User: Fold this.
Amino acid sequence: MKLLFRVVVLAGLLGAGGAALWYGQLRPASQPSDTLMVFGNVDVRQVELAINGSERIGRVLVEEGDLLEPGQLIAELELERFQLAVDRADAQIATQKQVVARLEAGTRPEEIRETEAAAEAAQAELADSESTFKRVELLKEKNATTQQDVDDARSKRDVAAANVRFKAASLELAVAGPRKEDIAEAKAVLKRLEVELAQARHDLHDASLHAPSRGIVQERILEVGDMASPQKPVYTVALADPVWVRAYVSEPDLGKVFEGMKAKVVTDSFPGKEYDGWVGFISPSAEFTPKPVETRELRTKLVYQIRVFVKNPNNELRLGMPATVNIPLGQSGPLSSGERDPAGPAPGGAAASGGAAGTKPE
Assistant:
């Protein structure tokens, strides 16, 4: 009997201890009836930055943890090959511009006078050949020369006549100037060379890597001397804006939440400090509660993912940081479609001034 009594007492004590443990640790967290509390983790967008060119790395200018500003130069390739391509294209354009200018200017007066003189000389040569031929014919009639001499004189006269026609045509061409088709062709070649120069300058610009927006360097992957290409990232960067908390709302509470609701976010890293936020996204599909979510509800329950965008002016919120979101209930209804931002969160912009992107309440 004593043994049975002891077993009963021990079972009672264990039951009371289990009840106390459940009540203190495992029971759902108490929260005000006018506030919805959800749990999640801070999330940001990450980008892998690569240089749009194939060459060895010439300079790497930032380290892990450095804060980047939009447009900041952070790396570049060895630039000699790209600069040589630009210089070559510049020289080709300079040459072709002279060709176009020469064709558009037409024949110089000096060249026309030279062609006129050549035509006059040909005319004089023809007259001389004609006289010689007539004299030889008279001699032939008197049998004072051979038929071969007559044929030679006639041939020289015909060649001189052809030369006169050639010089006359050359004079006409000199006066008319270059053909319009030749000018158009030269201009087309010039345009092609200008496009090649623009491409060379674009390649030179792409050989430098600039920060696309405000962010923090997470990983420096390539170093000076490494061979870079558009497929090989140089850095991994976490964008400073937008910052949001990826949280989950249970199905019974889904009807209490709408896009645009104001919220307060707190973290263990900065106890007592609240960050202003708002609900910017509600998933249209349900999922099982992810294991990383720090919630005291059953993890087999279906939930809906929401994004609560947060103002993070001092960059205190970091990727993966656990966070608690308090959403006051009883706020005004959902924003109309005309009041929402259909593009969702826009990168860049408000983090530095204390704002963030997304569906922001008035």
Remarks:
- The radius of gyration is 45 Å.
- Residues 1-5, 7-30, 336-359 have pLDDT under 50 and may be disordered.
